[in-house]
Write a structure and sequence with these properties.
With 205 residues, this protein is mostly helical. The chain is 47% helix and 8% strand. It has a single domain, classed as Four Helix Bundle (Hemerythrin (Met), subunit A), CATH 1.20.120. It has helices at residues 7-25, 44-47, 96-115, 131-149, 154-158, 175-204, and strands at 28-30, 36-38, 58-60, 71-73, 78-82. The strands form 2 sheets. It has a 3-stranded antiparallel β-sheet with strand order 3-5-4. A two-stranded antiparallel sheet has the order 1-2. The termini are far apart.
């Protein structure tokens, strides 16, 4: 049985993921008022589009990190611009590729640190360098996180540090608060990605 307190957060998570996936892949997306708007699938050019100079993005490892970044996070031939603490200020503007990769990694790692071996790190996570792989990675991460949520009970929801994800406040927060936080991450990054798609289309016109 899913704890009753978890039900509304699960529904919110499902809606946010479905809406973001629709915005990425088309052919229609939920406009937010119950109507549907036609949208084309994300292209490779749009995935890497840098609307301002010196964006942080996803890059080939052989090319090295971008401006103000000190490393490329992740595993494989591609990495995501990052920097050790203290991070650059003001924060660099990030591409759609960066934001989607960040979301997918967070979902995958938090799922693994909730219901898996609790050992996966950012250095283990493979970054996608193409649209198809990036969308598939988001879908896989969202599915893994949802399955992890279905494995918890009321006691787990109240347990501080139940998720051992090392890149957030998980060690200091009840798990229910972490579930809420993950939802807002999907909602706010999903909104950012949707806005970037709108700006890219407007630029083309």
């Amino acid at each position: 049985m899913t704890p009753p307190r978890l039900d509304p957060l699960l529904h919110q998570f499902d809606f946010a993921c479905e809406r973001l996936t629709g915005r990425l892949t088309g052919p229609v997306m939920d406009s937010g008022d119950g109507s549907e708007t036609r949208v084309g699938p994300l292209t490779g050019e749009e995935y890497f589009w840098e609307p301002v100079p010196d964006c942080w993005s996803v890059r080939r490892r052989a090319d090295g990190p971008g401006a103000r970044a000190t490393l490329l996070a992740g595993a494989g031939d591609w990495g995501r611009d990052a920097a050790s603490y203290p991070h650059p200020w003001p924060p660099p503007f990030t591409t759609l590729a960066w934001r989607l990769s960040h979301l997918s990694e967070m979902l995958t790692l938090r799922a693994e640190h909730t219901a898996g071996g609790r050992a996966l790190t950012r250095s283990d996570y493979r970054i996608s360098g193409d649209v198809t792989g990036a969308v598939a990675a988001f879908t896989a991460g969202a599915t893994a996180w949802r399955e992890a949520l279905l494995s918890v009970d009321d006691t787990a929801l109240d347990t501080v540090g139940y998720c051992t994800y090392p890149h957030g406040s998980d060690a200091e927060e009840p798990f229910l608060d972490i579930v809420w936080w993950v939802n807002q991450e999907v909602l706010h990054h999903g909104a950012e990605i949707a806005l970037m798609r709108d700006l890219y289309r407007a630029r083309q016109r």
